[in-house]
């Protein structure tokens, strides 16, 4: 299975329409790939809190329409990163969208863990409550977003829901790049899955985003890692490696699911 991570530069000087046109063009150029992944909130800007109300859209909005068409024209599964989704009651969500090769929306995931520590996303957006996996022609894909990487419970839940590959769009801050590298490898290794983490680059909303998009195999080995400029990282994933590793190193079989906390004396 061939996958490409399109590490877009999301800069304050670009408009959402300009980024949509550029992203669609880059996706159309990936014909022959099986899966293409984009970053988190690349159209609206993950750090442009003041723009979210203006740039929010439905899951049938301009970003979804452009990405659906691009997926269909390229003949790829497209994880379109995430959008600022507005629902009927006005609530905003950070919502990931997965399209199939025909451009049909096959998966929607509303980010469960909202970043901000009582500011930003944590106060301006609602939180999702569904663990989402999607069967594809190359394996079961699990969906997570950026800050979710810090919460292993979600990834164990994705594993239990059948995930063999987890796609993680992000706008991770460059200042915490060490954490990004550690967590992406750890989540792949502990769940024995492929993990494709696509992070934006550029400076937006006053935040320098880290880039360094990475593809990690079930052994926790990076198959490829991008730099800090806009680029496309393409890797080959042997999906049979998932079952092979789980058989050769059957740590998941030895899980103890209910460990009681020790009693206080």
UniProtKB/TrEMBL annotation:
Pfam families: CN_hydrolase. InterPro entries: C-N_Hydrolase (IPR003010), C-N_Hydrolase_sf (IPR036526), UPF0012_CS (IPR001110). GO terms for molecular function: hydrolase activity. Keywords: Hydrolase. It comes from the Bacteria. Residues 1-239 form the CN hydrolase domain. The keyword rRNA-binding does not apply. Belongs to the carbon-nitrogen hydrolase superfamily. NIT1/NIT2 family. This is Carbon-nitrogen hydrolase. It comes from Streptomyces populi. The lineage of its organism: Bacteria, Bacillati, Actinomycetota, Actinomycetes, Kitasatosporales.
């Amino acid at each position: 299975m061939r996958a490409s991570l399109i590490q877009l530069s999301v800069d304050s000087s670009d408009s959402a329409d300009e980024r949509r046109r550029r992203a669609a063009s880059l996706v159309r150029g990936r014909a022959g790939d099986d899966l293409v992944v984009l970053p988190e909130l690349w159209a609206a800007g993950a750090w442009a809190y003041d723009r979210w109300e203006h740039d929010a859209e439905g899951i049938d909005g301009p970003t979804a329409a452009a990405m659906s068409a691009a997926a269909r024209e390229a003949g790829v599964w497209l994880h379109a990163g995430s959008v600022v989704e507005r629902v009927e009651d006005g609530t905003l969500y950070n919502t990931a969208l997965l399209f199939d090769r025909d451009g049909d929306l096959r998966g929607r995931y509303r980010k469960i863990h909202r970043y901000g520590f009582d500011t930003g996303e944590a106060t301006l957006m609602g939180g999702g409550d569904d663990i989402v996996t999607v069967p594809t022609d190359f394996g079961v894909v699990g969906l997570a977003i950026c800050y979710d990487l810090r919460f292993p419970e979600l990834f164990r839940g994705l594993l239990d829901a059948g995930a063999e590959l987890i796609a993680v769009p992000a706008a991770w801050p460059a200042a915490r790049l060490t954490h990004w590298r550690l967590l992406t490898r750890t989540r792949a290794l502990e769940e024995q899955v492929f993990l494709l983490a696509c992070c934006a680059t550029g400076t937006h909303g006053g935040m320098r985003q880290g880039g360094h998009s990475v593809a990690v195999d079930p052994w926790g080995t990076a198959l490829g890692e991008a730099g800090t400029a806009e680029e496309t990282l393409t890797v080959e994933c042997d999906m049979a490696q998932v079952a092979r590793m789980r058989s050769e190193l059957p740590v998941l079989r030895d899980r103890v699911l209910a460990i009681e906390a020790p009693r206080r004396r």
